Amino acid sequence: MIQAVIIDDERNNIDNLEGLLQRYCTQVQIAGIAMTADEGATLIRKLKPDLVFLDIQMPGKSGFQMLQELPAPSFEIILVTAFDQYGIQAIKFSAVDYLLKPLNIEELKAAVQKAERRIGERMQNRELENLLQMIRNREERATHKLALPTVKETRFVHPKEIIRCESSNVYTSFYLSNHEKIMVSKPIYEYEELLADFGFLRCHQSHLVNKTYIKSWIKEDGGFLVLDNGEQIPVARSKKEIVAKMLIHLK
Asked: What secondary structure, in 3-state letters, does 70-135 show?
């Protein structure tokens, strides 16, 4: 059995989640419940659970603040929340599992199954560590790492190491400055949003480019970007105005 705790300031949310877990995720046993961040931290220290269901926006102290106060969290976590804009960016950037209210049963089952696998393998929770690092240093973008979940592992890379991203249906390939290629099973538009503040340019439906690596913009023959490594990336006609604005201060 997976020993779990629920931390949420609304009793109806707790009751709803408990009911869904009892019906659809019978491998989860609720060992404790807390309705404030301080109570939640005390409960975690006491019970040392395998899994924590955590609301982020709570009165007084947020779930993020509570996580920062816990030394070296060893549990798996599923965020169950309606979060602010920075929260969603940090969570997605770190590939931490989250569920939006009202809860979707299939998404809940998938998140619990993933946590169960990780608990069984006793893997270090690098995703949670990465999330906490981002929360602590939210203004220091140079320290932020993007989590790229592949079939075998989750890789953590600095955005500055990514030259470009290229989509193929629901897959996105990341081309790094060390000549490595990493493929993840997520569409490119998700990474367009995550990398927007790191100087990435969506110049085409299938291409997202780090403008640090752009050498020039050739406007003839439909238009394409030339990268420092010699690669040529097409520029869609619908993106020309956006590309022009972003490359005014190129380099």
From this structure: CCCCCCEEEEEECCCHHHHHHHHHHCCCEEECCCCHHHHHHHHHHHHHHHHHCCCCHHHHHHHHHH
Residue 117: pLDDT band with limits 50, 70, 90 = confident
Give tens-digit pLDDT for 52-69. Answer: 999 988 999 989 899 988
Q: Are residues 129 and 163 in the same domain?
A: no
Same domain, 161 and 105: no
More confident residue, 251 or 83: 83
Q: Which amino acid is at 71?
A: P
Same domain, 108 and 161: no
Question: What pairs with residue 36 in β-bridges?
Answer: none
Q: What is the mean pLDDT of the chain?
A: 89
- 165 and 104, same structural domain? no
Indicate if the pLDDT at residue 178 is higher than 50.
yes
CATH code of the domain containing 184: 2.40.50.1020
Q: Does 109 share its domain with 217?
A: no
Q: Classify each residue of 147-183 as buried b or exposed e, where b means 16 or more C-beta atoms within 10 Å of its C-beta.
A: bbeeeeeebbbebeebbbbbbeeeebebbbbeeeebe
Query: Cα dist. 116→1, 92, 122, 191, 211 in Å?
Result: 9, 20, 10, 27, 40
Same domain? For 128 and 41 the reply is: yes
Please, are residues 73 and 100 in contact by the beta-carbon 8 Å criterion?
no
Give the pLDDT of residue 185: 93
Report d(CA 85, CA 139) in Å as an integer. 14
211-225: per-residue pLDDT in tens? 999 999 998 766 899
